[in-house]
Design a protein that fits this description.
The protein is mostly beta strands and 199 residues long. The chain contains 2 helices and 10 strands, in the order ββαββββαββββ. A hairpin with a 2-residue loop joins strand 1 and strand 2.
Length: 199
């Protein structure tokens, strides 16, 4: 405390050349809160300039399995990639064996199915969360992935996770290792399923 608590304090004159610097009161600093920068999306894949897209969609079924379903804040819906020789993950290892991918600066082309959110302006993301697919948590959820950001028409790695296991329905939150201002973000999954799963 500084003294004179609960009393009115009056200043008789102002100092024109102070050497002290006002930093602030304890109560004027807002607590940090997480803000979901992406609005709730729907099957139009475009809400307020936020556009969702994916490398593929299962049987072309955008109505229930499209990219938007990953951003609708409903744990019972999800994006599902196509199943074909061009988009498959190995049934024994979970490693991606398809042909879709993105070229990343200083990394090269990384193959995997991917989900993209394009923003109406550059946004810096400091953390993100992933929820598992509730009906097949241990076999169809992401295991290893890149989060990449688009700036100046180039994709840059902003986070990399390897061998992440989902064992229940609880979403996992990750800090971005290299935050920056990007106009789009991609989740590129190069392996699915927990390591102890065989299908």
């Amino acid at each position: 405390s500084c003294g004179n608590e609960g009393l009115n304090v009056y200043a008789s004159k102002l100092i024109s050349n102070p050497i002290a610097e006002y930093i602030g009161c304890y109560n004027d600093k807002q607590n940090i809160t997480n803000i979901n920068v992406v609005p709730v999306l729907n099957s139009s894949n475009n809400v307020n300039g936020f556009i969702s897209s994916a490398s593929s969609v299962y049987m072309g079924n955008n109505d229930t399995l499209g990219a938007w379903a990953a951003f609708d804040q409903n744990p019972n819906t999800f994006w599902h990639s196509e199943v074909s020789s061009a988009t498959n993950y190995n049934a024994s290892t979970g490693v991606y064996e398809g042909t879709n991918g993105i070229t990343i600066v200083n990394v090269g082309t990384i193959n995997g199915e991917f989900l993209q959110i394009t923003m109406p302006s550059n946004i810096k993301v400091n953390k993100y969360s992933l929820a598992p697919r509730l009906d097949l948590i241990t076999t169809r959820s992401p295991n290893s992935w890149y989060i990449i950001g688009l700036k100046d028409n180039q994709w840059t790695t902003v986070d990399r996770q390897i061998n992440q296991h989902f064992t229940n329905s609880t979403p996992k939150t990750y800090n971005i290792s290299s935050p920056g201002d990007y106009s789009a973000y991609v989740l590129l999954v190069d392996k699915v399923g927990n390591d102890d799963q065989t299908t």
